[in-house]
Amino acid sequence: MNGVHLNSVHLNDVHYTETMAAMETGNPRQARHSRDDVAEAALRILDDYGLPDLTMRRLAASLDVQPSALYWHFPNKQTLLAELADRIVARSRTEHSDDLEWSARVRAEAAGLRDALLTFRDGAELVSSTFALGLGAADPVDRLTEAIELGGFDAETARRASVALLHFVLGHVSHEQQRLQYDSLGVVADEVSARADDAVLGGRQAQAEAFDFGVMLFVGGLQRLAARP
Amino acid sequence: MNGVHLNSVHLNDVHYTETMAAMETGNPRQARHSRDDVAEAALRILDDYGLPDLTMRRLAASLDVQPSALYWHFPNKQTLLAELADRIVARSRTEHSDDLEWSARVRAEAAGLRDALLTFRDGAELVSSTFALGLGAADPVDRLTEAIELGGFDAETARRASVALLHFVLGHVSHEQQRLQYDSLGVVADEVSARADDAVLGGRQAQAEAFDFGVMLFVGGLQRLAARP
DNA sequence: ACCTGAACACCGTTCAAGT
DNA sequence: ACCTGAACACCGTTCAAGT
Q1: In Å, what is the CA distance from B186 to each residue of A76, A134, B46, B179, B202?
Q2: Using CA atoms, how far apart are residues A166 and A160, in angstroms rounded to an integer?
Q3: So what's the pLDDT on residue A18?
Q4: Is B181 on the interface with A (CB under 8 A)?
Q5: Model-level pTM?
Q6: Which residues of A117-138 are buried (b: 16+ CB within 10 A; e: fewer)?
Q7: Does residue B78 belong to the interface with chain A, where contact is any CB pair within 8 Å?
Q8: How many CB atoms lie within 10 A of CB A157?
């Protein structure tokens, strides 16, 4: 804008490589990091210590870097979290043998999403919070919408239904994961009430059943809608 | 346990009243606060500035008190938030003319809960986070469960359905409120895309419709379940 | 291209002590 | 019964400067 050709700025830019820096300082430092390195390190902290412990300062320390260095790769923490959410959710891409009936496909997508969220500690809460902020998580909505549209529903109905279903999925799995680490903290206190509680809403099997039931209610609602338009 | 009668401890306890303190210091300080005062002040900050600004330090300042004083009323912030969640949710007690059909009553309960959450800024997010932690929000679950049981469903089915419905409600209203303040921040940028976006998922009316649609899917799923057991 | 150093403006919580 | 004062152990983010 001011007449200076931006392209010329880097003409004699000296690129300090890792080895050059090591030679100068005599200190064979860690490799400098890429955006991808940062995201992967963050996912590791998330899974090992949970969302509350995923701080910029801790992340920086795990990469042997100053906290301020992270802001070269991501403009702020929220953007980093959105990136993590997208990476977690990307694992839910099911090869949903396209010959499935639409309702079975919806159930498969929902189950795949749940599995993906469960592979990372606090995964549901992370995705949930970034989804609520209007960032990321667009992909699962699109895939659910597509599956529902196969049932002959119009675009808006399908979208509304898939967003509703996603809210259920995120809420359910958040709850589920919260309970997991609550249990792992061993609030043993009342053996009896713990058992009773467990019988009602605990146990991996029971959680999976409750999840399927919720998805089924949704699908059932859609089917009823199709039956009497 | 050690033989000392606990009842005798307070026998000659001197109670410093507000006026006594004022007389001594010559400083007519604010009235000392009750647990209820603290909760009400917190609700005011929540509604005026939002959940991220509801810090213990800010709350203390609004009460003309040191942050540490709050810990006499609540053991920690989480407990305070749970109390706020309960207070917000208590406003959803609808006088659901008991002559309503069960499905209408479920819809009324859901709508009442949404209205209650909307009366406070970030209300849904607050209730959602404490619910995910297993604190509070038990009341709405109970009322929804009761309504569903009137439809002839067994206790576990009713409970699972009501928890699922609650997850949808919390997720939907969180999203809705997030959008509200996103809009109020006036990210005017693209007038055009804003309009287009608005047509699809914006507007109070559209949000209310999408909400009702989601609830209807649930109820429809239950009805279908009743039709073919 | 990627990072350091230092600072700014905050957090929640504890605890002895005061009135 | 309710609060102060002071401290502890943290946060996210910015920015000039370095290599």
Answers
A1: 21, 15, 20, 11, 14
A2: 10
A3: 47
A4: no
A5: 0.86
A6: bbebbbbbbbbbbbbbbebbbe
A7: no
A8: 19
Q: DSSP strand E in chain B: where?
A: none
Judged by a CB distance cut-off of 8 A, whether residue B164 touches chain A is yes
**Average pLDDT value for residue range A21-41:** 71
Chain B neighbors of A228, CB-CB under 8 A:
none
Report chain D positions within 7 A of protein CB atoms.
1-7, 10-16, 19
Q: B210 and A160 in contact (C-beta within 8 Å)?
A: yes
Window 62-91 of chain B: CB closer than 7 A to strand D: 63-69, 72-73
Selected residues 54-73 of chain B with any CB under 8 Å from a CB in chain A: none
Mean pLDDT on B122-127: 97
Q: Using the beta-carbon criterion (under 8 Å), do A168 and B171 form an inter-chain contact?
A: yes
Q: pLDDT, tens digit, for every residue of A154-204?
A: 999 999 999 999 999 999 999 999 988 777 765 444 444 454 555 555 788
Arithmetic mean of pLDDT over chain B: 84
Three-state SS sequence of A120-170: CCCHHHHHHHHHHCCCCCHHHHHHHHHHHHCCCCCHHHHHHHHHHHHHHHH
Encoding tokens for residue B51?
């959940």
Question: Which is more confident, A21 or A125?
Answer: A125
Under a CB-based contact definition with an 8 Å cutoff, are residues A151 and A161 in contact?
no
- The pLDDT of B75-98, averaged and rounded, is 90
CA B142/CA B178 separation, integer angstroms: 27
Helix axes A138-149, A77-90, angle to 10 degrees: 40
- pLDDT tens-digit readout, B91-111: 888 776 778 999 999 999 999
